[in-house]
């Protein structure tokens, strides 16, 4: 009797172990199938995105996963949107990146500290998307034309607001929206736009509260470079920022982004403020010497009153630095407002 009882207990335990094992295997299969299902849904769940540029339409049927950025402002927009995990290369000097992004940026391979890497270095990181600040990146003797890149399965997008005449803030915001749309982070792109807009409106409101509507804006000349013939900004986002800060670009009637003018024209339009663009091998001091040593400019108001403001070129691009550039201009134009 005892033997039969013991056998029954052993048999019962065996059946329970079999049942538990089967349940565990079943649960594991369910979990695995659930994970596989989620992954499949993520891959399948990317709704195709159509992006229109000034000269073509780009179709994204899957999200880019290996991005190379050219120029500072596309890189900083990607980083601000939290998309660094998709960046496999960048062509911009790490020393020029905003301090808030440097730690993250340091983990991204720098293909070139100058303008363009070699095609070999570019293709070696196996990119599927190129995001550039300027159309000029996409040339055969650089990284290739847009059509050539497309043949290799590489999508190409240039920051539209940097490549049109007379961009507005809304044009810049549209660029940010498009990147957010491509990477399905629309909530982040809208948050960034809201933050930029709030910062810009804060500066404008401070000017209005202290001095009201600017009836007679300061006449401003943007001096980029050139001794015999000056090179200047005409209709870029900087012209828009000058206007917001209470000034007026004296060459905003020329329908180009940048162009050469004559010193005679500068004298005739008599700027009250000169903005010196700071970049490249020619120092700010050397540019000041050009201006102050030119006899024809001696009676120009900005020269007589030494009203010269220095603006790093990177801060005039159509990106996340716009509020910083605006505040810098406004503080120089109307220092009493910001005391």
From TrEMBL:
Pfam families given in the database record: Peripla_BP_2 (PF01497)
Secretion signal, residue range per the UniProt entry: 1-21
Domain of life: Bacteria
Assigned keywords, A-Z: Signal
InterPro entries: ABC_Transporter_SBP, ABC_transptr_periplasmic_BD
Coiled-coil ranges (or none): none
Domain named Fe/B12 periplasmic-binding: residues: 66-339
Homology family: Belongs to the bacterial solute-binding protein 8 family.
Name this polypeptide is given: Iron complex transport system substrate-binding protein
Organism, scientific name: Aneurinibacillus migulanus (Bacillus migulanus)
Origin organism lineage: Bacteria, Bacillati, Bacillota, Bacilli, Bacillales
């Amino acid at each position: 009797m005892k033997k039969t009882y013991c056998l029954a207990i052993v048999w019962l335990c065996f059946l329970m172990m079999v049942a538990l094992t089967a349940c565990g295997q079943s649960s594991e299969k369910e979990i695995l199938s659930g994970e596989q299902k989620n992954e499949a849904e993520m891959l399948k769940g990317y709704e195709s995105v159509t992006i229109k540029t000034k000269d073509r339409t780009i179709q994204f049927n899957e999200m880019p996963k290996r991005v190379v950025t050219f120029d500072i402002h596309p890189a900083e927009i990607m980083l601000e949107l939290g998309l660094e995990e998709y960046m496999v290369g960048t062509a911009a000097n790490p020393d020029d990146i905003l301090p808030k992004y440097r730690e993250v940026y340091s983990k991204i391979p720098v293909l070139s500290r100058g303008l363009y890497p070699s095609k070999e270095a570019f293709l070696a990181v196996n990119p599927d998307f190129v995001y550039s600040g300027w159309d000029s990146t996409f040339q055969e003797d650089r990284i290739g034309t847009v059509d050539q890149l497309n043949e290799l399965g590489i999508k190409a997008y240039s920051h539209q607001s940097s490549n049109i005449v007379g961009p507005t803030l809304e044009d810049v915001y549209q660029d940010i929206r498009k990147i957010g749309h491509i990477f399905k982070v629309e909530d982040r792109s809208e948050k960034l736009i809201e933050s930029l807009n709030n910062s810009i409106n804060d500066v404008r409101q401070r000017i209005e509260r202290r001095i009201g509507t600017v009836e007679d804006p300061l006449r401003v000349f943007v001096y980029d470079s050139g001794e015999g013939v000056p090179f200047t900004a005409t209709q870029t986002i900087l012209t828009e920022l000058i206007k917001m800060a209470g000034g007026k670009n004296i060459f905003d009637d020329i329908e180009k982004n940048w162009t050469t003018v004559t010193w005679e024209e500068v004298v005739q339009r008599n700027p009250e403020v000169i903005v010196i663009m700071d970049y490249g091998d020619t120092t700010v001091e050397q540019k000041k010497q050009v201006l102050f040593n030119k006899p024809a400019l001696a009676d120009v108001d900005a020269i007589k009153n030494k009203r010269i403001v220095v603006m790093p070129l990177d801060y005039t691009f159509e990106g996340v630095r716009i509020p910083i550039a605006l505040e810098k201009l406004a503080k120089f134009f109307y220092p009493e407002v910001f005391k």
